[in-house]
From TrEMBL, chains A, B:
Keyword Oxidoreductase: yes
GO terms assigned for molecular function: glyoxylate reductase (NADPH) activity; hydroxypyruvate reductase [NAD(P)H] activity
Name the record gives this protein: glyoxylate reductase (NADP(+))
Protein family membership: Belongs to the D-isomer specific 2-hydroxyacid dehydrogenase family.
Annotated EC: 1.1.1.79
Listed InterPro entries: D-isomer_2-hydroxyacid_DH, D-isomer_2_OHA_DH_cat_dom, D-isomer_DH_CS1, D-isomer_DH_NAD-bd, NAD(P)-bd_dom_sf
Pfam families per record: 2-Hacid_dh, 2-Hacid_dh_C
Residue intervals of the D-isomer specific 2-hydroxyacid dehydrogenase catalytic domain: 52-315
Residue span(s) of domain D-isomer specific 2-hydroxyacid dehydrogenase NAD-binding: 116-288
Alphabetic keyword roster: NAD, NADP, Oxidoreductase
Top-tier EC class: oxidoreductase
Entries under PANTHER family matching the protein: 2-HYDROXYACID DEHYDROGENASE-RELATED (PTHR10996), D-ISOMER SPECIFIC 2-HYDROXYACID DEHYDROGENASE FAMILY PROTEIN-RELATED (PTHR10996:SF179)
Record has NADP as a keyword: yes
Length: 344, 344
């Protein structure tokens, strides 16, 4: 069987495992490991740009119109993340390139992280953990009393696959769940706010898990933060630029909001070091969607998707069979009528 | 109205607030603030030991047979914790002293802490938080892939008010919940193991929340830990001596179990400093049951309980009205037929 060239941008979390399992099928063109411009990089590999039909990509390296312009034969783009903000979707649509995201497979993992961050911020688990480790053995382990999670009004921004999983978990903690999304969802029992400021005004905590688009960039701005108030907690498991980070830092430092649990940052890997001294902030290295089990399932789905694409050439229509009942694969194939992914 | 003397042992978390609200009703005899022997302390306050009819106590100071022997008129002992291991229940029973715990009021708070610790250990939230804070801004935020919480088999040791709340939450994370307690519970959907080793053998994680008694001391011994295995996680929100801490430290250091989230320790406030270097361990200063909201409700219940006791003199039979639907007050009054509290 002829090996197919597969361009890999960024370093998808599944990649090391995926490469090991599929080295007999693909020539992996690991652009993420080279500092050369793409054409030069391909030349060093003796690969003609026109031979590349599929790309596996990741938010750490944007798939821009310029890169796509160098690759005339690309028909298939695959990302393992729920967010697709690193892909120029308009250009893909214009060229009829199919874009597939399997990120919602890990929606439950991301939701677990959101709940973990929320509990951590409220109960100061990380901060107390640091304090205990510095404590003198004979000193009493004092702590400040935490606000209770039960009964808290928690607003979810973006009630897609991740937001839905967050809501389900919050219900078990007896939280009052409400949400904002582009449109009100039918059959959802939570109160809907069409306006984020109104949501924040009526909430004790906000969990941000919508996709990053032109419309949602800085959806959490200063006005929203002030509406949330000085006891309010923000958890972000979506994308960093969903929050105006400069204002977030200001609000946290000034005590204008109560705390934050952040798995993502506006200019990753940069984390604002003004936050390092704050005990009401939990900082996480964009780790939410990456569990061993999800990685394994993602590897299988990526393999199946690529195989289907290379076998048939026309547009992909893989319907993956997932045995774990908690995975909700949503193959969000473009071209579609809207410029945005469908899940927020 | 004549002020009643109220002996306060340990420093109940509600105490500062309770004292402020009730200084017009009680002479607070704060034995926890004195290093004098009890009789000498009472002499400095001009209080006759025989005038003390009620005690408010806390695990930080044991209510022993010796202390009870100095106080012939005591008829009522109140603790704000779920555990009653700091009270000599046998002696109270022998003397017909009523013992009331309102700790199960905060069962949901403790359960929140248990879930927070479990997610933190699995997803390494605290450890990553520490790493991010030490990180150089320009370096990528790497992390190791976590085991997934969804689908994990979690064993609850002690399915009382706290254990029940833990189970409810774990279900929302799609965990497979199983349990051990003294007896199998009717109407509980979780699989029951009469033997803790069998439970551990069939689990990925154990959450310990049973009361500390002679029978449950070191219920998690080396055999149980080895049965749980090298990927297994232990969370303890009950009492430190439920776990053989020396063996726990050994198993963690040697990698014979996967990790631990500990809100309690065998010899508080001492925390084994062998654990300080481990990233798979989260250490919490016995903070689980202490939220602002629960504190307020506890204050009201303690006030009502004491008022009822001092008004009627005979045994208390307060049925508190709790408006928050998530509180499950269980006034576990002794004397009862068994020497153990009824909730495990």
């Amino acid at each position: 069987m002829e090996l197919q060239p597969l361009l890999v941008l960024g370093l998808p979390s599944i990649f090391p495992a995926f490469e090991t399992l599929n080295s007999h099928k693909y020539i992996f063109l690991k652009a993420f490991s080279s500092k050369l411009p793409l054409l030069q990089f391909l030349a060093t590999k003796n690969v003609a740009p026109s031979s590349i039909r599929a790309i596996l990509c990741d938010p750490r390296q944007a798939l821009t119109v310029d890169i796509l312009g160098l690759l005339p034969a690309v028909g298939f783009v695959l990302t393992t993340t729920a967010g697709m903000d690193h892909i120029d979707l308009s250009e893909c649509r214009r060229r009829g390139i199919q874009v597939v995201s399997i990120g919602s497979l890990a929606a439950d993992d991301v939701a677990d992280m959101a709940i973990g961050l929320l509990i951590d911020v409220l109960y100061k688990i990380s901060a107390n953990n640091r304090r205990v480790r510095k404590c003198v053995a004979s000193k009493p382990l004092n702590f400040t009393m935490a606000p209770k999670l039960g009964g808290k009004r928690v607003g979810i921004i973006g009630l897609g696959s991740i937001g839905g999983e967050v809501g389900k978990r919050l219900e078990a903690f007896d939280c009052k769940v409400m949400y904002h999304s582009r449109n009100e969802k039918p059959f959802v029992p939570y109160h809907y706010y069409s306006n984020v400021v109104d949501l924040a005004t009526n909430c004790d905590a906000l969990v941000v898990c919508c996709p990053l688009t032109k419309q949602t960039r800085h959806i959490l701005n200063r006005e929203v933060m002030l509406a949330l108030g000085k006891d309010g907690v923000i958890v972000n498991v979506g994308r960093g630029p969903l929050i105006d980070e400069k204002e977030l830092v200001h609000c946290l430092v000034q005590g204008e909001i109560g705390g934050a649990g952040l798995d993502v940052f506006e200019n990753e890997p940069r984390v604002p070091n003004e936050l390092f001294a704050l005990d009401n902030v939990v900082l996480s290295p964009h780790a939410g969607a990456h569990t061993k089990e999800s990685c394994q399932v993602k590897c299988e789905l990526v393999a199946a998707s690529l195989e289907a694409f290379f076998a048939t050439k026309p547009r992909i229509s893989v319907q993956p069979v997932i045995e774990e009942r908690h995975f909700y694969p949503s193959f969000e194939c473009l071209p579609a009528s809207s410029g945005e992914p469908a899940y927020a």
